[in-house]
Amino acid sequence: MGTPRTSGVGQGGVYTRWIKNMVKFQSSTLFCCSSTSALKTWCVAKPSTNEIALEDNIEFACATVKCKVIERGHPCFFPNTLISHASVVMNLYYQVHGRNYWNCNFTNSGLTTFTDPSYNNCKYMLRKSTSF
Question: For the chain, what is the HEC assignment?
């Protein structure tokens, strides 16, 4: 969807159709990603997140969820990188706290995905959402 034209502003014009399509898009996006959705979603760290933010995210998430899974000798220790460990515990936090979009914000360093990020023996938790 490009920038709307100023011509055709009247009823049924290009601009009006563009606005209606944006409202439909935003409404469906909000519906698809709400905690009551049947879609499977996970939370991971954005690839552009700096190391300090990743460390902060690990500390924040592990204050309320059990993070043993990223410790040495456990399934998600390897790869032993900040982004991998942060993604695992950010997802734990997101799943435990209701899978709401705000539970994956992490100061704008979290990203929700519809693709299961699990690898090898490291299984990313997925909690079914409940309807309210």
Answer: CCCCCCCCCCCCCHHHHHHHHHHHHHHHHHHHCCCCCCCCCEEEECCCCCHHHHHHHHHHHHCCCCCHHHCCCCCCCCCCCHHHHHHHHHHHHHHHCCCCHHHHCCCCCEEEECCCCCECCECCCCCCCCCC
